[in-house]
Amino acid sequence: MSVSPSAMITGASTGIGYATSKFLVEKGWNVFAGVRKTEDGERLKSELGEAVTPVICDVTDGAQVKAAGDLVREMLGEENLAGLVNNAGVAVAGPLLHLPIEDMQRQLEINVTGQLRVTQAFAPLLGAEVGRGGKPGRIVNISSVAGLSATPLVTPYACSKHALEAFTQGLRRELIMYGIDVVAINPGPIATPIWDKAEEMDPEQYAGTDYEAAIRKILGYMLDRGRSGLPPIKVAEAIYAGLTDEKPKLNTILSPEPFQQWLMSVLPSRMVDRLIAKRLGLTPDARR
Questions:
Q1: How confident is the model at residue 1 (pLDDT cuts 50, 70, 90)?
Q2: Does residue 267 form part of some domain?
Q3: Which of 97, 164, 218, 282 has its CA 20 to 30 A from that of 5?
């Protein structure tokens, strides 16, 4: 391998992962691009060049994650991995009183347990193993503003990101002994395909419940805010800072509506509850 720094990025085929892969390559890094499909890996290599090494890595598949770690280990030799970007994730929506249990299990399996699998596989290559060369690497977890405040009807996603915040904080403290820093990026709406998948959710699934109208509203909001959100390059820039700044921020909040984000963080929680409930039609007079 080159003496250029190397990073492993999960969920690299589109959106934030793709933008970050491209940005790091332009900065002279080598990128191990985690993808689930061979054709996505071939496309990335074709578009981004020889500095990209596609790695098949479905974060829900333990054997595949281990194989990905073994492949990267072989290619690095004794050199340390400079960065791990835990980016793979999905967004599940639905009212908690009616949400299929398997939907919540899938949400947590990908967004939380999947990050643990990847971290365990790659942390040794970042410096948590005796005998590797170079300074310790860093871990950047892609969280969300939803990890700081939960929006009703997208609570499964918020649960996963709240968990990822605890994961980030606890992991950072556990890895101090190895000199490996761990930080989180907290994007608001970003124009990525994750929100397009909201179209796949059928509001009719909740027809006849008190949440039917609110579900339609929140899905429309998700699609609108996602498509008009910040470009993924803004997150890529923040990830690069997390990987390279001498003292990176522990949480970097990125929002197209910073004032609204700030306002919601300073208003009394009960007031925020009422404002959100009124906006989505979740007040008592909205019940069937």
A1: very low
A2: no
A3: 164
